[in-house]
Each structure stands twice: as C-alpha cells, then as structure tokens.
Amino acid sequence: MTALLDISIADAGRLFRARKLSPVELVKCKLDQIQAVDPHYNAFLEVTAEIALSEARQAEADILAGRLRGPMHGIPFGVKDIIDVVGLRTTAQSRIFADNVATRDAAVVQRLRAGGAVLIGKLTLDEFAAGGPVFDQVRPPARNPWNRDLHVGGSSSGSAVAVKTGMVPAAIGTDTGGSIRNPSTCAGIVGLKPTYGVVGRSGVFPVSFSMDHVGPMTRTVEDNAILFEAIVGKDAADPTSVAHPNRDCLRGMRRSLAGRRIGALEHFYTEDSEARPEMRAAMDVAIRVLRDLGASVTPVRLSPLQKWFDCGQTILECESYAIHENWLRERPGDYSSLARAKLSRGAFASAAQYIKALQARSILCAEFAALMREFDALITLSGFELPCPFDSPDLPRVFERQARMPFNVTGTPAIAVPTGFTGDGLPLAMQIAGPAFGEAIVYNVAWAFCEATGWTNRFPPEVQALL
Fold this sequence. Notes:
Blueprint: H1 9-17, H2 23-41, E1 44-47, H3 49-64, E2 76-80, H4 107-114, E3 118-123, H5 157-164, E4 170-175, H6 181-187, E5 190-193, E6 213-218, H7 221-231, E7 261-264, H8 267-272, H9 277-292, E8 296-299, H10 305-330, H11 337-344, H12 351-372, E9 377-381, H13 395-400, H14 405-410, E10 414-421, E11 427-433, H15 439-453, H16 461-464
Parallel strand pairs: 2-3, 2-4, 7-8, 7-9
Antiparallel strand pairs: 1-3, 4-6, 5-6, 5-10, 9-11, 10-11
Helix pairs in contact: 2-3, 5-6, 10-11, 10-12
C-alpha cells in the first residue's frame, strides 16, 4: 500500500500503460485505504466498492487490449454529493434530499466514465453546498487532514480530504463563492475554479445559477490539468454551457515563465482586509519565487475587496433563496441550523438590491477585463484566516475573510496552490487567476511555482500513522 499511498493520476496512468500496475490493483488499494482512514476524517458519504471494482476490471481489460480512452482511463475518482450518479442517492448532505435517487449521470460524470475513469464514491459537503461544518446535518463534517480537530473549509470539504489523504487521486467539487479553493487551501491541495460554463452543470444541484462552477481537485498541478481536460466540454443539457476555445492545458504547462506578466493583488490582503502575518509572509516568498522563475510581478489594484464580496454575496443569497424558498417555508426543521440561516438571508433582499448587484457585477467584470489586457495572470491570497475548531465562535468570520469571491463574480479561472506551512503544520495557499478561458496560462504559472517549491508533495503525518 505504501507505494500507492499518494500516487498521482499521471504516475498511475504511466504505470497502467507500461503494464506495471492494474486499475483493479489500484482500486483495491484505495478501498483498503478508505476503510482505514475515512472513519477518522468523514470524507465519504457513500463508498461504491462494487461499482469501482466492476469499472476497474473493464478498464483493465480495455487497457490490456490496447483500447486506451485517455489519461483518466482506470483512475479512481469521487464526486461531491450534489452531483448525480445514476442509481445512487444525491443527498446534498440534507434531510430534504434523503430519498433523492438520480436517474442519470451528471454531465461531468458522463465525461469521466466515457474516458474510462472509475467511480469510487460520493463525498461529504456542507449541506446544499451552502451550510457549514456543523454536527446537526445528516452526517458529521469532514475533518482537516493536518489536524482532525479543525475544519477543512467548504463546501467541497470531503473532496479535498479524500484527495489529501490519498483515498482518491481525483475528486470533483463545485465552487460558488470559493467552495473548491477554500477546502483546497485548508487541505494543501490544488483546486481549480474554471471559466464559467466550460464544465457542464447538468445533473449538479444548483447553489447560485449565475455563479456556480464545477471543477477538479487533485494533489498536483499536472493531475489537475489532466482532470480538467477530461471534464471540460459543451453540455447540451446546460443552457449556460460554452465551448472552450483552448482546452489543451498540458501542452504548454511546462513552458518557462520568462516574459510572463503577473499582477499581484496585494491590497486585498494588506489594506482591504488584513491577513494573518504568516500568510502575508508566504505571499512575499511566492512573489520572489515567481520572479526568480523569470516572471515580472507588479503590484496592481482593482476595486476594494468588500465591493466584490458584497456584489457576489447579494447575488448568491438571492439566487439560493429562490431555489430553496418552498422548502424553507414548508420544511425548515429539515435543514441544519447554519444552512437554514444562510439560505434564508435572500428572503430579506429586495429586487432592487439584486438588480443593483447585477449592475455592479457588469462594472466589476469590465474593470477586471481591462486589467487582464495588461497581464497574463494575477496572484493574491486565498483565505486570510487559518482553519479553527468546529465549535469556535470565529468560524463564520473565518469563512468570510477571503479573496475568492472576486473570481466567482467575474466567472474567470482561479486556482489555489500551496505556498508553505505554518509553524503548527497547517497549509498556506495563494490563488493564481487568469482571463476568461485562460486555464492554460493559470496552469503554466501554477506548475512552475509548485515544481520550484515542492509544497504539494507533503503528506499528513496523522494520516500516514493510520496506514
């Protein structure tokens, strides 16, 4: 098991093709790992062992016969439980959906299965991807891989934990106000929120129609690009879906950063909302690393962070309430306390506030697009606070002190990558953001930085002790 403990998608694929590892062997290893580790971390809501073994046997037969379907062929993956898998329950970790059995695969699952990937389970989340890490929801929240007493961010919490603990090499999350990048930051993995619409959302229960994104969560940047290429594509059942003009992100990923123009949004975390000192120090080091790699890094400014947050939060709350209005009126007791409180906020917003937020969004997006005409990518912090205990009164504030919302407002790609660790061993992270459809640029910068620093290679000692 040790050799496969934290195997990457890329390495597993190479071993499959060289016939030095079989998909069945890998799946059996991961199922054993889940059995040993997950009771301590609560990443999985459902482990689909029979499905995984059946699909792994088929993948093995195909690969041995030379019928390769792509780099995800034979790779185990898990999905956040607001994503439909035919025949399985999609509960959103809520009593509201306790008996909600999917009748078809979500578009993202269809794409992965068409590429020969192997479903291994449904993953924990904050209730309806809008609640928080509380204990009055259906199942307990996922725990941080670096310290089980701490939360791991949300709402794609189980996806991040499953990846960082090595239980799966690939997971799919969703991101409306940072829900891929937040747990990726807290767990020390790589998580991408793609350009709005390039990954289909049919079969994914919505949080906010105009700000929801589906994206990949992995240990390494290369794995993330592999998984992204496997899931990107037009979705005929999603009216917001768009074709990606440049879905090939692996080809130029390893190019030099010489000549890359990177803007540093320092005012988000030094003026608008002051981040913890160790986070700011790690960003200073990250800027030096990028400059040493040949990029020019220049401080830049956008509208104050609060303006971005207020705009995005108003849209999110109004659209979420529109989805949940009837259930909140008829079944309020079936929500956890935090989900009920968050989802009810939109009831107190006026139509005028929603329209003004949409108007502000247009202005902010134009401002962002103008800046991106001068730069290839932007960097800033992801969150401004470290994970805290589940019962901490600071928990709501920790979730809100972040710089992830701007890129949900713009609908442009942003990736969270590790930048180091605190003295107590908790991960630190930054975001790398790009223009619309600029995933290839984002991956190029992220890969160069992560290769130079090696922060993605650390494995949680608490997890290793369980194996």
